[in-house]
Specification:
By secondary structure, the chain is of the alpha+beta class. β1 and β2 form a beta hairpin. The termini are far apart.
Length: about 110
């Protein structure tokens, strides 16, 4: 079972098929406010945050999908990917269609 399913219930709706984006690595942790995945583009790490489908269920007032810059505080063999205080929002949207279009664009 994926960590996001263990941490955020088996009924959590990502809004996309995770199997379509094998470069997304589940980084979810039970103390986080939402599901997260990290990925690498060149030498830069990024985190995709996926919040609840229903806005009233979210802990913060933000878009459902956010991609921000991240750093690897570990190494290539044992990555520890975090979005620190210097993280920059790269992309955000509310609909899964917009996220899918973006993921398709960066995966080519």
């Amino acid at each position: 079972m994926q960590p996001y399913l263990q941490a955020f219930e088996t009924q959590f709706n990502l809004g996309f098929s995770l199997s379509d984006y094998p470069f997304l690595i589940d980084n979810s942790y039970g103390n986080d406010t939402c599901v997260s995945f990290y990925f690498r583009q060149g030498d830069q790490y990024k985190i995709l945050w996926v919040d609840h489908e229903i806005a009233d269920e979210r802990e913060e007032d933000c878009a459902r999908f956010i991609i921000e810059s991240a750093t690897n505080e570990g190494n290539d063999a044992f990555p520890e990917i975090y979005a620190g205080t210097e993280a920059v929002n790269i992309f955000e949207c509310e609909t899964s269609e917009d996220l899918i279009a973006y993921l398709n664009l960066i995966s080519t």
